[in-house]
Amino acid sequence: MSVVKRKMRLSEGEERLIAKILEEDIKSIKPKYSFAKGFVYDLSSVLDLELSEFLNVANSLVEKGFLLRKFYRKVPLCPNCGSQKLLFVFICPSCKSTNWLKGKALQHLTSTCEYIGFESEFINNTCPNCGQELKSAQINESGEAFSLPVDYKVYDVYYKCNSCGIFFEHPAVSAFCLDCSTQSDFNNLNWIDLYTYEPSPTLVKFEPGLFLASKIVSELTNRGYSVKEKSLLLGKSGLPHEFDIIAVKGDNQVTIDISAESGKTQKDSLLSGYVKSQDLENTNYYFVSVNELTPDEKKIAETFNIKYIESKDAKEIVDKMEADNFQKVENIKKS
């Protein structure tokens, strides 16, 4: 009977993060700003994870349904070293100089002149370039504007570069990295999305048995078993069957399913376990429930001769399995 290895349900980082959330009853995980590093999560330093590693772990748990997330903000990173410590510099879009002025500007708009300059240059409302007086609306005694159309445009905020002399509506933005001294155009920056996270109803529901599998694996390994987690066994029918744990020690092969459920879902899991166990040879199947089985669930287990263990303690679970196997061997010897 061959075994096909499957990926573990949770990575080490995911288990550590969930364990911390449950241990400290954390309701929300929010990024905080640090002058030394930029935005950080308190738990990332506690778990000894870089920001990118923490986000990978947290977002993976979102995909697996254990965490919920809400967008917090987008953060720029240095394209050279990945640092958040950026000094944003506002520059002339033409020559990149930071030597510019800001003020109210006028632009003369005629067929022969399109001069633009700060309002202070238009002395006596006269264009300093062509010498013509700007045409402004006149006000009559009733306070109404009339006569000539305006031949200039007003910019309440405009900029002039003192280095190359051009006027521009908005400065360009570049970023200077305070860690590696790289200067980057705004469009060349890298970006990451930060989120706030909170435990999902799924995490709360499965909390009692979430780490039970890994604890049972450790207990079995310490007792000399060869253990695989979330693996497949090919049955007599040729169909693959997945078990939470498959453990082998000598001639003794044990398959285990773990449930933190109740109600119809638990009954379905019991029946599924029975079907799988009937398709296997020379295998001891155990259904482990972190909750006490209901009378109906126990009746199903007893009717189909499903061995079940009600416990949240890994040592107790393995003790009961080994005691059951020992008794089975003794019965075979007597017969």
Task: Characterize the structure shown.
The strands form six sheets. Strands 1-15-16-17-18-19 form a six-stranded mixed sheet, with helices on both faces. Strands 7-6-10-11 form a four-stranded antiparallel sheet, with no helix packed on it. It contains eight helices and 19 strands. The chain has three domains: 7-81 and 187-198; 87-126 and 150-185, no CATH class; 211-334, Trna Endonuclease, Chain: A, domain 1 (3-Layer(aba) Sandwich), CATH 3.40.1350.10. The longest helix has 21 residues, at 314-334. The relative contact order is 0.13. It has 335 residues and is an alpha+beta fold. The chain has helices at residues 12-23, 42-46, 51-63, 201-206, 212-222, 264-278, 295-303, 314-334; strands at residues 3-4, 31-34, 38-41, 67-77, 86-91, 100-108, 116-118, 138-139, 145-146, 152-161, 167-168, 172-177, 183-185, 190-199, 226-234, 240-249, 252-259, 284-289, 307-310. The chain is 27% helix and 33% strand. The model is unreliable at 1-8 (pLDDT under 50). The protein is rod-shaped, with a radius of gyration of 36 Å. It starts with a strand and ends with a helix.
What is the CATH topology assignment of the largest domain? Trna Endonuclease, Chain: A, domain 1
Percentage of residues in strands: 25-35%
CATH class of the largest domain: Alpha Beta
Number of strands: 19
Number of domains: 3
Question: How many individual helices?
Answer: 8
Structural class: alpha+beta
Quaternary = single chain
Give, in order, the helices and strands.
EHEEHHEEEEEEEEEEEHHEEEHEHEH
What radius of gyration results from the CA coordinates?
A: 36 Å
- Give the N-to-C terminal Cα separation: 27 Å
- What CATH architecture label of the largest domain applies? 3-Layer(aba) Sandwich
